[in-house]
Amino acid sequence: MMADKSEITHKGEERVQALILAAYHSIAEKGFEGLRLRDVAQQVGLNHATLHHYFPTKEAMVQAVVLYVTQRLAQTATFTEGTPMEQLRAHLHALQQCMQEEPALFVVLSEIGLRAQRDPAIRAIVQQQTEGWHALLTGILEAGIRQGDWPRDLDAEATASAIIALTQSFNLINAKLLPIRAEQAMKQLERWLELK
User: Fold this and answer.
1) Which residues form the DNA-binding region (predicted)?
2) Segment 138-177, tens digit of pLDDT
3) Do 99 and 40 reside in the same domain of the chain?
């Protein structure tokens, strides 16, 4: 009996996702320098040649991992209800929870930041995602200023940039190695924004 087209497509999507996750975990453990396509294929139970059917180059796989990481972080900003202050609080708490539960995400994000310095394709993905995040935060802050949550003289764009910079610095203090420092920084940010 022959499998229908949707079943084949679904199986292919599952393999792609499994390969991305295997590469993601490899990068978290060994960095980009330790990423070997042969090892990734083996972890998923595929032949190395078959992997190239899904990702023709190592760079294509790396870009898929970058998209996975940026989309995973974007999930911390999927809120639509509540006041602007409640939305920002929910976002910061989701980020903090993500740091605690999935420190590998921030390790890989750190690796991506380094790679983006040398790779224009990775840099473009990171810039696009960061600009979207910045726009989202700026919109929340501007709405909060209009509603009186924050002072009228608060610079929404600069504050959004500060939130992003602080969050990205968690890569440096590494939520896995120094979780207390990341938690302290997040709590201080909440105090500054009077979210507590």
Assistant:
1) 36-55
2) 999 999 999 999 999 999 999 999 998 888 776 655 555 5
3) no
CATH number at residue 107: 1.10.357.10
Q: Tell me: the pLDDT tens digits for 90-118?
A: 898 888 888 878 888 888 988 898 899 99
Maximal CA-CA distance, the chain: 69
What are 94's two structure tokens? 């989701």
- Whole-number Cα distances in Å, 164 to 55, 94, 155, 193: 31, 14, 14, 14
Taking CA atoms, 108 is separated from 15, 21, 33, 80, 101, in Å, by: 21, 12, 12, 28, 14
Range of the domain at 87: 65-192
Q: Is the same domain home to 52 and 113?
A: no
What whole-number distance in Å separates Cα of residue 20 and Cα of residue 14?
A: 10
Residues 24, 16 contacting (CB under 8 angstroms) = no
Q: Assess contact for 24 and 108: CB atoms under 8 A.
A: yes
